[in-house]
Design a protein that fits this description.
By secondary structure, the chain is an all-alpha fold. The protein has six helices and no strands.
Length: 155
């Protein structure tokens, strides 16, 4: 691990003590305070009318994760897992929270589509491909596997 990953100005002032470490310190007499106990209780909450929304968001998260796993590698895969976990946390936090997250996601995707559309337009102008040719290719692509679609620029 490189020093730049662990030696930050704040890192020297942050200490993470797990419950087990605190209990050991208490047993050794190094800690005067008591270590609070935790009574974890899982409660089932009925979602009522919101259930379909939760199901749809969960389906979106699962499908996006599976599709992305096919094309991402290394750190990108780890980052994706973090993002998907964050979406699930936002979903369980509140409807407003997940709505904000998904709205921002949609805006970013719209920007990417817009950028890609501009790039395709520039490429088609450079190659002399018309909108009619692109529309024809799109029509073929909906019924033909992409490997069989051939766009021939006008001569």
């Amino acid at each position: 691990m490189e020093a730049s990953q662990w030696a930050t100005p704040v890192q020297s002032r942050i200490f993470r003590n797990t419950r087990a470490v605190l209990e050991q310190c208490q047993d050794l007499g190094l800690l005067d305070d008591t270590v609070p106990t935790r009574d974890v209780e899982t409660k089932r909450i009925e979602l009522g009318d919101a259930a379909p929304l939760y199901d749809q968001v969960e389906q979106y998260i699962d499908e996006t994760y599976k599709q992305s796993q096919k094309v991402l590698t290394g750190k990108e895969k780890l980052a994706l897992g973090f993002v998907m976990t964050t979406y699930r946390q936002r979903l369980t936090s509140s409807l407003h929270a997940i709505k904000q997250s998904l709205q921002r996601r949609m805006e970013k995707l719209d920007e990417k589509v817009e950028d890609m559309t501009e790039e395709v337009s520039e490429l088609s102008r450079d190659a002399g491909v018309t909108e009619a040719t692109i529309d024809e290719a799109i029509g073929q692509a909906s019924s033909t596997p992409i490997s069989q679609v051939v766009v021939v620029p006008p001569t």
